[in-house]
Design goal:
With 261 residues, this protein is α/β, with parallel strands linked by helices. The chain folds into 2 domains: 126 residues; 122 residues, Glutaredoxin (3-Layer(aba) Sandwich), CATH 3.40.30. The chain contains 10 helices and 7 strands. Strand 3, helix 7 and strand 4 form a beta-alpha-beta unit.
Length: 261
């Protein structure tokens, strides 16, 4: 796959006479082939964690390099927009913002929706970046500020009952709560993009015993520029955003460090 990627990149690099339509077809075809081979390898080696990790680490670089080359060379046309879509979630926020600023391609239809939404999301993320003060919101008479900025470190989990990765984080969150809950630390789950009845059922099944805000839908995700869940944020006692997008072992480490443990 890596060799095929190099060949395709080279073909695009050395084919300035190709039309935008041809370049877009090359990009789409390559990405479809990449994902097909990626999924096949993952399925065939699902019991070999070491092989899966090594393959994933290697292939994400191949995927990024190919699409980044296409983006840089097509900032003025729809190929660049398509490549930017592929790279969203792969490049960090600053890099996405950099290329979005350089993008001069005319956009329309779904491309226009994507670019406009991305600009809004990046703006929201900048306003709510680490080091910034929290932004308040209200859901059914319950305010975010009822919990955040009240003198305790607050770990907030934005989640939904249908979200597999959200459920996978629950053991980590339960462990953090049981270990650190007290006068200096507390937790809050904010259910987004979900039905209240589904949230209540899942919360009971998963053992969520800490504070909850239910039925928040898009309100907080728009404010905080959250594109995917779970999205876990650690707030300081005064409401300052200390860490964003915590996952796995990072959750407990961030809380322990904040508490001086």
């Amino acid at each position: 796959m890596a060799a095929a990627a190099v060949a395709l990149v080279a073909a695009c690099d050395n084919a300035p006479s190709k039309s935008v339509e041809e370049k877009l077809a090359d990009l789409t075809g390559w990405n479809e082939k990449f994902m097909e081979e990626y999924r096949t390898f993952m399925a065939e080696n699902r019991d070999n964690e070491a092989a899966l990790k090594a393959y994933a680490d290697s292939m994400i670089n191949v995927f990024q390099d190919f699409n980044l080359t296409a983006l840089k060379e097509n900032l003025d046309n729809e190929v660049g927009v398509a490549a930017l879509k592929n790279l969203y979630g792969v490049l960090d926020t600053d890099e996405i913002a950099e290329y979005l600023d350089k993008l001069t391609a005319p956009v329309h239809g779904q491309d226009s929706v994507f670019v406009h939404g991305l600009k809004e999301s990046l703006s929201a993320q900048k306003k709510t970046a680490e080091g910034q003060m929290f932004t308040d919101f209200e859901v059914d008479g319950v305010r975010f500020s009822d919990f955040v900025g009240k003198g305790k470190y607050m770990l907030v989990d934005f989640w939904a009952s249908w979200c597999g990765p959200c459920k996978a984080e629950m053991p980590n969150l339960i462990n953090v709560y049981n270990t650190y809950h007290g006068d200096k630390f507390d937790m809050l789950s904010v259910a987004v993009w979900d039905k209240p009845e589904d949230t209540a059922k899942a919360a009971g099944e998963l053992g969520i015993v800490w504070h909850q805000i239910v039925n928040a839908q898009k309100i907080p995700t728009d404010i905080y520029g959250i594109e995917g869940i779970p999205h876990i944020i650690l707030f300081g006692p005064d409401g300052t955003i200390l860490k964003r997008n915590l996952r796995g072992e990072e959750i407990g480490k961030a809380v322990a460090e904040a508490l001086g443990n």
